[in-house]
Amino acid sequence: MIPKSGNRFSDKIMRKNAMRVVIAGFGPFPGAPSNPSGRLAIALARRRRPALAGIEIASHIFATAYDAVDRDLPKLLARKPDVLLIFGLAGRRRHVCIETRARNARSILFPDASGWRPERAVIEPSQRALTGNAPLPRLLNALRQTALPARLSRDAGAYLCNYAYWRALQGARGGRPLVQFVHIPWVGAKSRRASSPHSALSLSRLVAGAENLLIALVAASRRSNASLSQRVRHPQLADFETVPITQARRDKTLQRRALARGERRTSRDDGRRDRLRGAARAIVAFDGDA
Are 114 and 30 in contact (CB under 8 A)? Predict the structure, then answer.
C-alpha cells in the first residue's frame, strides 16, 4: 500500500506536469455596457469534458484598458500556460472570427474604458503584423463542426482586442503558449439585418463551439509538446523529422486556401460596406470591438 505521503508526492508531480490553459475575455467598454466575451470565457473555463480531463483551466477578464492588458497579461504568461485563448467582442460582425494576425495598429480616436487614448497609431516601431502560431484551418473546422457561422479574419481591429493579441503573440517563446484570439458577435441580440440567419447567437451555442475550438487547441499543443520532447531526447534525429515538417507545410497550405476562400466570400460585402462608410471607416474599427 502506498503511503499517503507518496500519494501527495505523486499528485504534486502530476500537477506540475499538467497542461495549463488560460481563457480570457474583456469587460465593459464605451458602447458595450455588457461584454459577452467575458461571460463566454468564464462559462468555457467551467466546462468539463473527457477531452479536457487533467487540464488546469483558468479564466480571466481584462478591464478594457491598455494599462490593464500591460499589467495582467505578463502575469498570465508567467503561469506558463500551454494554451492562451482570448475572446473579444466585434459587435458589427455576423460571424465568429478566428483572427490570423495582430496588426501593428491602434486607434488614436477612441479612448479605452479608463478614458486613456493612445498618442501614436502604432503599438511600436517594428513589423507590420504578427502572425498567429495556432493551426488556424483546424480551428476553423472545429467551429464549423458545431454549425456556428465562422471564418478566418486578417483584421483584429485597432482597439484593445488587437492590442492584447499583439502583446500575447509577442510574449510567446519557442511556440509556447499557443495563442489564439477569437472575435464573437453580440449574444442574443438581433442584427440590423433582420433577414440574417446568424442574427441571434446564444451564449450556450457559443460555449459549445468554443469548447470544440479549445479541444482542437489542446490537441495541437500536445502534438507540439510531444515533438519538442522527442527532439530534446533524441537530438540526432532532428535532421530526419520530415513528418512534422510536412505537416507544418500542409497546415500552411490549408491556411492559405482557407483565407482565400474567406476573403472571396466576404470581399463583396466588405467592399460595399467600405464604400458606404467612407470616411467613417475608423469608427467601424472601434464600434463594438473590444
Answer: no
